Structures are given as C-alpha cells and as structure tokens.
Description:
single chain, mainly alpha, MetI-like fold, 12 helices, flat
Amino acid sequence: xxxxxxxxxxxxxxxxxxxxxxxxxxxxxxxxxxxxxxxxxxxxxxxxxxxxxxxxxxxxxxxxxxxxxxxxxxxxxxxxxxxxxxxxxxxxxxxxxxxxxxxxxxxxxxxxxxxxxxxxxxxxxxxxxxxxxxxxxxxxxxxxxxxxxxxxxxxxxxxxxxxxxxxxxxxxxxxxxxxxxxxxxxxxxxxxxxxxxxxxxxxxxxxxxxxxxxxxxxxxxxxxxxxxxxxxxxxxxxxxxxxxxxxxxxxxxxxxxxxxxxxxxxxxxxxxxxxxxxxxxxxxxxxxxxxxxxxxxxxxxxxxx
Length: 305
C-alpha cells in the first residue's frame, strides 16, 4: 500500500510538470496581448509590463514561473487583478467552487443510488422504464442547456428561485442541480447495474432465506457489494464536477474559481491560468488516488500493487 501511494505521488509530479509545460506554451501561442485593452498604453509602459511578467522572453519566463512555484508556492502577481497574487485569488475563489461541487456531488450520489436501486428492484415496471429514459436524457444534456432550462422555469416563469448570485441557500439550489443532474443520471445507471448483478448472488438468497426484512437485505447486503463501481467513479466525477462548474458559475454569476478561470482566459492572464490549471490537475490526481484506496478498502480482493 505504501509503495503504491508513493509511486502514485511520484507520477503526480510528472503529470503536473507535463500539464504546466503544455499549458504555458499553449498560452504563449494564443493571440492577443493582456496589456492592450480599449486604450493602448505607451510603448515604454508596455515594455515595462512585459518585462515584469516575463513575457518578453518566453523561455526564461517558463523557468522563472516554475522556480517561483517550487520556491514560494505561487506564480506571483496576476495581470487582471490589481494588487492580488495568484495564490490570493485562488484562495478566495476555491472554497466557493468546492462548496458548490461538494453539494452537487452529494445530491448526485444520494439521489442516484436511490433511483438506481429502485429501478433494479422494480425491473421491467414503469419506474424502471422511466428511470432508463431519464438517465439517458440526463447524460446527453450538457450543463449549460440544463442550467438555462432551470433558469427559465424556476427563475423567470415561476419566479420561485433567484436567478443567480451567492450567499443564501436558495441561490445554491439551481446551480447545484445543474451540476448534479448529469452525474446523478450516471450514478443511477451504475447503481441499477450493480444492484441487479448482486441480487442473484448466493449470499443474498441466503439472507432472504434467513427471513431478513427486504430493507435489511438491500441496505446490509446488496448495496455495500454493488457500490464498488460507484466508488471508482467518484474520483473522476468529483474532479469533473469542479471543472464543469466553469460554465455553471459563469451562468449563475457565482464568484468561484470557474468564473475566475474564464475571465483569466479572456484576459490572457497567464500566471492566473497556470495556477488554476495546476490546482485542478492536483485535485484530479488526488481524488483518483482516494477513489482507488476506497475501492481497495471496500473490497479486500483488490490489491494495489
């Protein structure tokens, strides 16, 4: 186990280095100048700004940003946020995205497992057919379509929920549902398939033969053994929910890391984009590692070598 974790952490360093390299040179290759807006500064000021952020010499900037990250854990000042460092912007916006993503993941997990279990237990009946159609629809629809539909229905037509913002429980409902619905549908399909496979196992028939109530059989024997595929899916799902929040946060005007990332890309704020990309990459790597460890803990037959 220790050797597996150590090897994965060493691989993470390599992955972060490759992601940093690819992101940096792609940003350098994109057209545009972050210092030229509606009004063009004098040439002397432009030269000073490019010199400050290392954009006059991309090769030197590549190593300078990497050294600053390794030594200070930061990429220095941002371009688009005056008097703010990259680390300060990320620390301010990341908790918002994490709160929204955690709520969306909990909704997807709880409702998805419940719906999938009901569909498997009522195989072939109308709830199972409705679940199959709904999950296919939920997986196929992108976030911005789901969010726009929920906005039109609940914020414009019915006016029962606010159209956006951050700070109250009501403002969380629509963006959390928008993020959760595609993953809810996928978890429901995984739960349905897992429960149907486990229902025919010998230990389930033995539990029923002992006279255990149906809810005890489902909660104590079927669901724990049908949850391995869901545990394996949770790692990439959590990371995908965070990256999927880019569009959702912009749509609902939520001051999270997704909205900051979109604005940084539009402004070609190279230090800030690099910082956000590496934060999400690190989160993806760690969440996948935790998912593998959870699967090994839940099923002793899985050996991490």
